[in-house]
Design a protein that fits this description.
The chain is built from 13 helices and 15 strands. With 368 residues, it is α/β, with parallel strands linked by helices. The strands form four sheets. Strands 5-6-7-8-9-10-11 form a seven-stranded parallel beta sheet. Strands 3-2-1-15 form a four-stranded antiparallel beta sheet, with helices on both faces. Strands 4-13 form a two-stranded antiparallel ribbon.
Length: 368
């Protein structure tokens, strides 16, 4: 296989509603798309880096520069046998997993199309549909939060996740448990707390949460080990896990009982499958988190979620939750039972809408 050329595009897409976390508030997404020509077959990938370096050190502008100035030169003219070999070609660059994942995912899409099979099957997926949950940002009032949860439950979603931060934690959870005593509920702190806050986090156990996601520092594995000892509720790690080695340390040292696998955060399918297998071998369930992706990134998340150890509902949702108009066809929909059917067409199985991609494009660069 040979990547003959790639095209980078930055598209600008407005969310249907602002999305707020403990780190940031998003209204317009700057998304990098990678279009890779692999032996004459086009594959698509998406860089999930945010507009600012608040979730991760990577952000849109750094990802563009790394893709153009460093990753493309590493793969240009290089022959390889399969998409799974691309990760090794990119290894000379340290970090920048989101940029790497965008390029690697595009090659996986192209290989699946070359073999006339779905990407889900190519990576070893076993599911025909995936279970869906939703992530709800911090709301101005508890009444607005309750209304948002009611709407998502009516749409069929199987699990509710809410964002929390200091000052917006116990009361939102208490109110939701009063209103919805039986729902699957979890919270995501995006590293908003320290180990000294453990008594407050311990109080959350009274509300029967599925998990507490990334409560402490984004690079603080040790404190999560200490916190998990104090909690019966499982800790789920997100920002702390960027490599297979970090995942192994987290699992074997007891820093968490669940891992959120995001394709961009850990660098693509090759590492994602290794972390998936590691967790499966240790009896640690995984699920797929979201990064406010366009339809291309969403299609990749669907494929990833078909691996057998993705046993918990992820953050892969219907297109309409985020976009008035998406760049793929057909758009992603969720059944009344809270599931998404896995596309069966070649590659990601959903067709990029080139007309909308061009409409939303704010910069473009062709690399040969």
């Amino acid at each position: 296989m040979l990547i003959r050329e790639i095209t980078l595009r930055e598209i600008s897409m407005k969310l249907v509603a602002p999305f707020e976390t403990s780190m940031d508030r998003s209204e317009i997404r700057r998304i990098i798309l990678v279009e890779a020509n692999v032996d004459g077959v086009i594959g698509w990938g998406e860089c999930v880096a945010g507009e600012s370096p608040f979730y991760s050190p990577e952000y849109t502008d750094t990802a563009w520069l790394v893709l153009r100035n460093f990753l493309w030169p590493l793969v240009k003219g290089q022959q390889f046998k399969a998409a799974s070999d691309v990760w090794a070609l990119l290894a000379h660059v340290r970090g920048h997993n989101m940029a790497k994942a965008a390029l690697e995912a595009a090659v996986w899409d192209a290989e699946a199309k070359q073999k006339d099979m779905s990407l889900a099957k190519l990576i070893g997926g076993t599911r025909e549909e995936i279970a869906c949950g939703v992530s709800i940002g911090i709301k101005p009032s508890l009444d607005e939060l309750v209304a948002a949860v009611k709407e998502e439950l009516a749409a069929g979603y199987q699990r509710i996740k809410i964002k929390i931060k200091p000052g917006s934690d116990l009361e939102p959870v208490r109110r939701l448990r009063q209103e919805f005593p039986r729902i699957k509920l979890m919270v995501d702190a995006n590293s908003a707390y320290t180990l000294e806050d453990w008594p407050l986090l311990k109080q959350l156990e009274g509300f029967y949460l599925m998990m507490i996601e990334q409560p402490l520092g984004w690079d603080d594995l040790y404190s999560h080990i200490e916190l998990q000892k104090k909690l019966d509720t499982p800790i789920c790690l997100d920002e702390c896990i960027h490599t297979e080695e970090q995942a192994r340390a987290a699992v074997e040292l007891g820093a968490c009982k669940i891992i959120n696998i995001k394709l961009g955060r850990i660098g693509g399918y090759t590492v994602a499958r290794r972390i998936h297998d590691l967790c499966q071998d240790h009896g640690v369930p995984v699920w797929c988190g979201g990064m406010l992706e366009s339809g291309i990134g969403r299609a990749h998340n669907i494929a990833l979620s078909t691996l057998p150890n993705f046993t918990l509902p992820g953050d892969v949702t219907a297109t309409k939750r985020y976009w008035a108009e998406d760049i793929i066809s057909p758009e992603v929909t969720v059944s009344p039972q809270g599931t998404i059917r896995v596309p069966v067409g070649p590659g990601i199985g959903l067709k990029p809408r080139l007309d909308l991609i061009e409409k939303f494009t704010v910069r473009k660069e062709h690399l040969v």
